[in-house]
Amino acid sequence: MPLLDLNKLSIGLSKTWTGYLRDWDRTLRSASHPETTRYNYLLAAAQLARYLAEYSPDPDADDAADDPCEVTRAHIEFFQAWMIETRSGATALNKHKGLQQFFKWLQLDEEDIDRSPMERVKQPKPQKKLIAVIRDDDTKKVLGTCKGKDFVQLRDEAIIRLYYNTGARLSEVGNLSLDDLSQDTDSVHYHGKGNKDRRVRYGPKTARAISRYLRARVKHRGAELPDLWLADRGGKPLKPNGIKIMIKRRGLSAGLTGVHAHRWRHNFAHEWKRAGGDTGDLMLLLGWTSEDMPRHYGQSAAAERAQETQLRMGIGENV
């Protein structure tokens, strides 16, 4: 099932809002924006329209709920405040960025408004949350729940090892096809954000887990599908959301909470820095273009790395 369903997103919206969202999506598709970006942008606009119709304290919000060209700066600021109160600052910031693009399109492409209501709206300042890395001992416990030779156990071990070994995003591993895998070079071709592709090597333990899974996959219902990961029933592919649920379930079975794919991405960055790896190489491996990302990932373990460096340097121990 595709992530983006415009009919579902537009439920309860006016015909004018719905028409604009469809036209905007066509523009986004023509500019090769990936589906996840389009979904996040369109969702932000749809949520604003729904907020204006159902929750806004502004008595003049009815006109804006019917037509996005009537949206004002005050409407946006009320919406952002509501998002911070009911969700989080990070979510409000995400909506802010999506709405910036929507009203920019209305102003510059469609020329239906003279001035964007986002013009003087300040970005929310979300509180940065440190995501703890997942330690090797905990990963060992999670992998311990996959022991066995059943199809599901072999599949889940291969998936978890690939996250652990390569630091990939949830969707990158989840959307792999058979053609993305090279057993000759023990490497995988990831399709990253913004159509940025990269090839990453994986180690012997991951290679063995993948080989075992592929042997079981040949005999499994749905083996003719191009998708790498198959669901345990129904002859259907296992999609990223299914993998997300699987990892959480495996974590709970291991007695751990808060286990998700992104924690292995943070762990990869932490271990890379700990080993003295080059930041530029890390950016290539993890598919980053901004130098802010290496600073953010693994930040929760930065003090540990600093203490290890301090001991290695031996400052104050020379006399």
Question: How helix-rich are the residues, as a percent range?
Answer: 55-70%
CA distance, first residue to last residue: 67 Å
What's the alpha carbon Rg, rounded to whole Å? 23 Å
Query: What is the succession of H and E elements?
Result: HHHHHHHHHEEEHHHHHH
The total beta strand count reads 3
Strand order of the largest sheet: 1-2-3
For the sheet with most strands, the description reads: 3 strands, antiparallel
Structural class: mainly alpha
Q: What is the overall number of helices?
A: 15
In one word, what is the shape? globular
Strand content: under 5%
Poorly predicted runs of 5 or more residues: none
> What is the arithmetic mean of pLDDT?
92
